Every structure is written in C-alpha cells, then in structure tokens.
Amino acid sequence: MFFSHVVDQTLKKIKSQTANLLTLTNMSLGGFAILAATQGQLNLSVVLIFVAALADRFDGMAARKLNIESELGKQLDSMSDVISFGVAPALLLYQGILHSFGFPGLFFTVFYMSCGAFRLARFNVTESNGYFTGLPITAAGCLATLAYLFNPLIPSHLYLFIMIALSFLMIASFKFKKM
Amino acid sequence: MFFSHVVDQTLKKIKSQTANLLTLTNMSLGGFAILAATQGQLNLSVVLIFVAALADRFDGMAARKLNIESELGKQLDSMSDVISFGVAPALLLYQGILHSFGFPGLFFTVFYMSCGAFRLARFNVTESNGYFTGLPITAAGCLATLAYLFNPLIPSHLYLFIMIALSFLMIASFKFKKM
Fold first, then answer.
1. Coiled coil located at which positions (chains A, B) (predicted)?
2. A173 near A133, Cβ under 8 Å?
3. Could you give the CA distance from residue B55 to residue B29 in angstroms, rounded to a whole number?
C-alpha cells in the first residue's frame, strides 16, 4: 500500500516536471552553444542550437499533452529561449562573421539580443489568443543559424542586413496564426 | 494649444518609458560585456557588468519614484538580468579561469546560467511580499565578477566552488528582507 503510494507520487512528480526538465535541457544546450561559439567551435554551436530548437518544440508539446502547462513553465521557457535563440545565435554570427565589421557588427549583435528579449517580455504579458505577434525568437534564432550555414554562398555584409531584419521582425506588431 | 498638447504627450511618453529605457541600457551593457568576454577583453567585460548593475539599481528606483512600475517592465528587467548577471559573468569566469578545468568548468558555467534563469522564472511567478527568496541574480553576478578581480589571490580551483555555491544560493528557498 505504502509502496504503491510512493510510486504513484513519484510518477506524478515526474509527470509534472517533464516539461520543465525538457526546458532546462533546452536552456543547457543554449548555454553549451554559447561556450562552443566562444571557443571558436562554430559548427558544434550550430548543432547545439538546432537540438535546443527540437527540445523547445517537445517541451511545449509535452506540457500540452500531459496537461501540465504552468506559469512557472512559461517563464522558464522564455528564459531558456533568450539564452538558446537570443544570445547563442547572435554570438555564433558575431564570432563567425560580424566581428569583422567593427562597431556596426558589435552594435547589431547586441541589438538582436535586446529585440529578442523585448519580444519575450511582451509575449509574457500578453494573453494567449492563438496568434503570434511578431516573429517568434525561436524562428529568428533558427533562421540566423541556418543563414550562418550558407556562409560561403552569402556575401558577408548581407549578414548585417539579416540581423537587422530579424531584429525588427521580432519586435514588429504584425500577427499571424500559431501552427 | 496644439503645441503644448504635443509636448505634454511626449513628456508623458518619455516618463512612462524612462524605466524601460534604463532596463534596455542595462541589457545592452550585458550584451556588450558578453562580446567583450568573447573577444578576451575581460577587464572591459568586468566594467560593463558593474555599470549594468548600477543601471539595474537605477531602473527599479526610477520606476518606483515615477510611479510607472508595469508588468512589461518587470518582465523586461528579468530578461535583462539573465543576460547581464547570468550569461555575462558566467562567460567572464569561463574565459578567464574555468575553461582550464575542461568538462567540469564547462558544466558548472552552464549550471550557473540555468540556476540564474530558474531563479528569475520563479521570481516572476511569485507575488512580491518584501522578501527575496534565494540570492538575487544581480548579487550573484556582481559577486562572481568581484571574485574574478581577486584572480591573482584566489587559487583557480576555488572558482569552481564559488560558481557552484552561487548557483545553489540562487535556487535555494531561504528568504531575507529586501533593502
């Protein structure tokens, strides 16, 4: 009796924490992606950002499926997004390409991070109504990382334009339906 | 008449955005601190983190004094804190000292970032009652940065311990009165 109660409680706890554990995984992947970019291991950083995007996709799905969506989970998710899709891709592009532009490269890297953070802050205080306002930071981060992969094909100065465009798209007020 | 109305509206707008502008300044300083650490300019990174801490102190004060505290402001503040006092000091210590420890250095740098993000997420869903729960990330970030300054005096392996201690202090559940 006691044993089945303990098992039951443990299973409940695991279930309620599954989404948050996935979010923490996503966050850690973002942290490792930042350190990889710092150490010049840019391809590893790319892989880590994409895996973080997969984890991000799964934690939302898990939370909805297990019916364990929580306010703490939402906040944790935003924190993890600013690390994995705000700071990490910005640092990847700065280390890989933008550092060669001097101050403009520096400025627009920080501008991208700030716009991403603003986008998330606004998202957190907006009631969910089935619509996104502005480009989600996950999409912006993945697009920036994807753009980095086409590095040999895209002229360097275009990356400045890509960073500026993604930054403005995140803070823009256009709406589109969530998928 | 029209002119005075426009001036009045503009002043109101400036007033309502003062705190958020200070928060964005804090966030940008954190972003620049990250890029400085990445480029090996560690002393510049230290200065930027401390100036961000000053900006962080002022934006809260400005919001309270001007009576313009808002939910968006609170969220923006947390986003800025995770960048300036979560990622930036962690990267500073990793670049300056912890990278020489291999995987443990890597792991506890990411652990510090994740604990800081968790601390902020928990703070955002907790009603303010005049008490802090766990060490605030601003204090942890400043202590880590201060510890870096004593680099020649403190044995390197102690920094691993400092990172672990600060991480656990942030997610701990002890309470103490806000100053």
1. none
2. yes
3. 9
Nearest to A119, CA basis, from A59, A52, A83, A168: A168
Residues on chain A touching B121 (C-beta within 8 angstroms): 72, 75-76, 78-79
Classify residue A87 by its DSSP letter: I
Residue B51 CA to residue B72 CA, distance in Å, equals 23
CB A93 within 8 A of CB A159: yes
Confirm whether pTM is higher than 0.95. no
Report, as an integer, the average pLDDT of A88-101: 96
Q: What is the pLDDT of residues B59-73, one digit of tens each?
A: 777 777 777 678 888
Which residues span the domain enclosing A128? 2-177
Domain containing residue A18: CATH number: 1.20.120.1760
Residue with tokens 């000292």: B97
Interface test with B, best of A29, A48, A87 (most B CBs within 10 A): A87
Summarize pLDDT for A113-123 with one digit per residue, the tens: 999 999 999 98
Q: State the Cα–Cα distance between residues B132 and A107, nearest whole angstrom.
A: 34
* Contact with chain A for residue B163, Cβ under 8 A: no
